[in-house]
Amino acid sequence: MTERRLMAVHAHPDDESSKGAATLARYADEGHRILVITLTGGERGDILNPALDLPDVRDRIADVRRDEMAKAAEILGVEHEWLGFVDSGLPEGDPRPPLPEGCFALVPLEEPVSKLVRLIREFRPHVMTTYDENGGYPHPDHIRCHQVSIAAFEAAADPDLYPGTGHPWSVSKLYYNHGFIRQRMQLLQDEFANNGLQGPFAKWLENWDPEHDALANRVTTRVRCAEHFSRRDDALRAHATQIDPGGWFFETPLEWQHRLWPTEEFELARSRVPAELPEDDLFAGIEIFE
What we know:
alpha/beta; Rossmann fold; 11 helices; 7 strands; 37% helix; globular
């Protein structure tokens, strides 16, 4: 079988497990190489699992999150690289405080772009995935991840840019992850109601930002990966500091998800090959001669 290669670029450890993870697991199981790039160490992330919100864990959170990432990568069957930048945190308050000095969102763009270009030229992916211009949600590291990914996608193919980082490589296609889709949440919430249960999505739907509907309309590609949803969930649980195992994410029975919404969604943002939309495969239209 001809090897296909996909690079998934994410801001923090755990993002790869909550955004497109079942798709990665599917392609890995089909024998293709998948490389997850994590731009920061997630050092400033909150501990969202009450059972692990302990002084010892907080004091060594960077090491803990590295171990969690290694477990998640093993579960998904993917390769992994750190880009090595420091988490910016999510500023809160009105007005919001300034970002911490030296954090990823404040580093000159050329630094992470150069590192990512080197990895692109080494791994030579046919497909990249990342976030849209809004970052999926407005975390400064997610928005910066988008900027870095777009710049590196373009620069990696240009022999005049970033000399000394390897031979130029043209990535055929670049996609944005799209996970927050109202229709999906409504379908699952209705299924809870049909079974006499309250369901976890009511507040999400009540406070839904209509702008998210416009983003959902940009979906071009739906990858069937329901049989890998359990791997997605196991990978997310591996990030034990970042997810409450009794929380809302795991409330919806997998059987309902398989039946009602068996896909993960992406937007084709850049393509160097002819594309016929809509698609059901991130590698559609790519001829591989290696």
